[in-house]
Specification:
The protein has about 100 residues and is an all-beta fold. It has a single domain, classed as Rieske Iron-sulfur Protein (3-layer Sandwich). Helix content is about 0%, strand content about 50%. The protein contains no helices and eleven strands. The chain has a four-stranded antiparallel β-sheet with strand order 2-3-4-9, with no helix packed on it. A four-stranded antiparallel β-sheet has the order 5-6-7-8, with no helix packed on it. A three-stranded antiparallel β-sheet has the order 1-11-10, with no helix packed on it.
Length: about 100
């Protein structure tokens, strides 16, 4: 397990979105209404990038086919084609004045 620094806390604001590639992980850090989330950055349905996705309440909506995922748990809430797995969510870790994640190598 290894800690990876993602961003300084001072740089985060509502509407913040940034994609990170760490080893084999493709992650997106976002802040909405003061809450921070770290999720996989591509939709599990067809790997479409989620950087331009909408957030509707607590749902993250994939811009390609409208799949909806709970932003907190990653649970698939709605699908328009075939069923897919849930979205992977990662626990954020605050250290000093930054936010990061602990991942396997």
């Amino acid at each position: 397990m290894h800690y990876y620094r993602l961003e300084r806390l001072i740089n985060l604001f509502d509407g913040y979105r940034q994609v990170f590639k760490i080893n084999s992980h493709h992650l997106m850090l976002l802040q909405i209404d003061g809450e921070r989330f770290l999720i996989e950055s591509n939709c599990p349905h067809r790997e479409y990038p989620l950087k331009s996705s909408d957030v509707d309440g607590s749902d993250l909506v994939c811009p390609q086919h409208g799949y909806r995922f709970d932003i907190r748990s990653g649970e698939l809430r709605h699908y328009s084609e075939e069923h897919c797995r849930n979205l992977h969510c990662f626990e954020l870790v605050e250290r000093d004045s930054e936010v990061g994640v602990i991942l396997d190598y």
